[in-house]
Every structure is written in structure tokens, then in C-alpha cells.
Amino acid sequence: MRNNHTLVVFYASMRNIGLLYHFRYMSEAFDKLLVKHDQIKLLIVTENGEQIEGLRNELTSSIKNGEILDVENIDEVNNYISNCINNFDRIILLTQGNLQLLQACKMKVKYRKKINIYLRLNSFNHGKKIKRTLNSLFITALSVIFNVKINFQCGYTKKIFAGASILQVLNRSTVIPLGLNSEDLTKDYSDIEKKYVNIIYLAQFHKHKNHLLIIKKLSRLLNERHNLKLNFYGDGEYLNDCENYVKQHGLDRNIKFHGRIPREQIPDVINKADLSLVASKVETFGHNVLEPAWFGVPILTTKVGIAEDLLKDYRAGYLVKTDLSDIETSLIAMLGNLQKLKANAEQDKVIIRKKYNWDTVVASYIKEGII
Q1: Which of 89, 100, 134, 282 could crosslink 5 through cysteines, CB 3.0-4.6 Å?
Q2: What are the backbone dihedrals phi and psi of residue 72, each rounded to the nearest 5 degrees, phi first?
Q3: DSSP helix/strand/coil, 67
Q4: Residue 95: CB partners within 8 Å, gap ≥ 6?
Q5: Alpha-carbon distance 217 to 157, whole Å?
């Protein structure tokens, strides 16, 4: 007699990256949740590599009930499933990315109703509109043909997905966010930091992140208010352009580039900030929007990713247009009301942590009938 009727396969890695940081924690949350359901077995799939050194060891030590399958390539997952297909009544494939989705569709062709496919839409060429549209339609076609259910990580992503209305009619879409589980930190401002308003932007220097446009739009304000310090964290192809512009226009006193910092330093950087910026043209989710709210820091963000959903529960944020035409006036308004915004942020972070912690997020997979 079989102990498990359902096999849940959670793909926690991405090709050329390996085990992903956020999915290491999502795996642990699934492991804790599904142990309560003795007829469900959890299989966590990891490919070569890890996004951050040490993630694989952390995953191994945190998983108490599920099984971890290390593979050289994604074909090995299909071989694993084929070898145990008769041990389960159904197999749920929680995929992310087109390669994993296509491999899952092969299994659907072979085993039909026994295979249930779910795609977490983490990225679909979101910085390039034409590619995004084509990829959206490609994914929609696979959903129609193979009965794939698609998860949008926020309402915004659903809006910019070309086939969203089709998926809605077919009842093949959900909206479940990503989560966080970072520890709480006590704000510890040094004497120097208290003299300045510390504004941060954590993002890689890609074109759609709008770093240079931020600098241009805020240059006048920064020149007028010497107590404003704009700190950029990240690297990338457009970093040199931004550094050169700052030097050429004498903004060195107000703007500093810190480069890419280790993941473990991010909570401390956020906690020491007075205000966090996000200026992307597009985001599939946007952890750099969620993280400041998690730690109780006011946010000034474009209307991308989780921003609009988040600010329904968080009274310490302002939304600006993606062309940043209103960023200066919005920032001035926030600075004039900063203490009130900070007080609101401290209160509302309790709601954010309840709603966006990993345990709550993975419980939605049961609630939505995905598992």
C-alpha cells in the first residue's frame, strides 16, 4: 500500500545560476507545511551551482522531511518521475522558467492526467517589451494546450502579461507573491548618519532600472539640499555611465556608489536607511520594494511589481510614474512628512510580515487548490 498519493516536485534552481536564494527559503517552508499532509511527498530539485555560496548546505540542513534531488540537467527529473510514476496517483510539477515548463509538458504528453503543471512566472524578458509579449503568448499557448496553471506574483505582472485574459477565462491563473523571512534588526544610526537623510536604491545597473534617470531628475534637489545622501548598491553594465555623470556634474558629495554587496548585508543597509527608492520601468515582483516595508522603511517607488499591492497595506509609500516625471515633487513631499511616514512604517511592517512571510505564502498553494 502506498504511503504517498501525491508527489510535489519543486524546482528550486535555474539553469546557469543553480539553487536560488529565495527558493532555498521557500523549499524550507514547503517542507514544514507538507509534513502535516502524510499523503504528500515533497521533492526539491536543484541543479549545478548556487546563487550565493553556502545555500546548498543551508538547504540540506533545513529540510527535515522532503527529498532533495541534485541533477546535472533537467532531463534527470523526468527520469526520476518515470521511475516512480506508479507510486503516486498524481504528480504536481511546480516549475519556473521556460526550460522547466517544456520538460514538464513532455511528461504531460507521456502520462496525461497524472501530471499537473504549475508555472511560477518569475521573469519573462520583463525589460524588453517585444520579447515579453512574445514570451507571454508562448506561455499562454502552452497553458491552453497542456492545461498549465500560471502564477502571477503580483497584480502588476498579470496586467502586463499578454495572455492574462485568456488564462482568466480558462481559470488557469493565480496571484501568489514571493516572501521573506529575514530576522528583525534594531535601527542603529551613527552620529554621522543622523546628520543626513540616507536614501538608498538597491538594484543592478541595468537599463530598465533607471539609475541615470534618477540622478538627472534629482540633481537639482541634491545640489540644493546637502543633507540628502543618495546611496546606490549594485553593479552592472550602466554603472560606469552613472559614475561618470556624477563626477562631471559635481554630485560626488551627495551620491555614492557602493557596488554589489553580500546578501547578508542588505538587511543592515535597509535598516539604516531613512527612505528607499525603486525606479524600475518594469518588475515581475520586486523584492527591493518588499524588503524596505518588511523592515519598516518608507518607500518611493514606480508603479511596478508588488508596489501597488503592497501599498494597500503600507501607509509609508509613494508611487511615481515610470518616466520619473514626478519623482522630485514626490520626494520633497515625503521629506516634509518623513517622521510620520516612519511611524506608519513601523506600525504597518507587522501586517507586511504576516502577509508576506514564507509560511503564509506557501500555505496559499493549499488554499488555491494547487497542491
Answers
A1: 89
A2: -80, -35
A3: strand
A4: 11, 101, 103, 104, 117, 118, 119, 120
A5: 26
* Sign of the CA dihedral running 149, 151, 155, 160: negative
Which distant-in-sequence residues (6+ apart) come within 8 Å of 227 by Cβ?
Answer: 195, 196, 197
How far is it, in rounded angstroms, from Cα 81 to Cα 98?
Answer: 19
Domains and CATH numbers, the chain: 6-180+357-367 (3.40.50), 191-356 (3.40.50.2000)
318: three-class secondary structure by DSSP: strand
Q: DSSP labels for 288-316?
A: HHHHHHHTT--EEEES-TTHHHHTTT-SS
Buried-exposed string 7-46: b where 16+ CB fall within 10 A, e elsewhere: bbbbbbbbeeebbbebbbbbbbbbbbbbeeeeebbbbbbb
The vertex-339 CA angle with 335 and 341, nearest 5°, equals 80
Say which DSSP state 253 is in: T
- Helices 358-367 and 338-356: crossing angle in degrees, nearest 10, is 50
Local confidence pLDDT in tens for the 371 residues of the chain: 345 699 999 999 988 889 999 999 999 999 999 988 889 999 999 988 899 899 999 999 999 999 999 998 888 999 999 999 999 999 999 999 899 999 999 999 999 999 999 999 987 665 677 888 999 999 999 999 999 999 999 999 999 999 999 999 999 999 999 999 866 555 554 444 567 899 999 999 999 999 999 999 999 999 999 999 999 999 999 999 999 999 999 999 999 999 999 988 999 999 999 999 999 999 999 999 999 999 999 999 999 999 999 999 999 999 999 999 999 999 999 999 999 999 999 999 999 999 999 999 999 999 998 98
Q: Are 317 and 293 in contact (CB under 8 A)?
A: yes
Cα–Cα dist 173/180, whole Å: 23
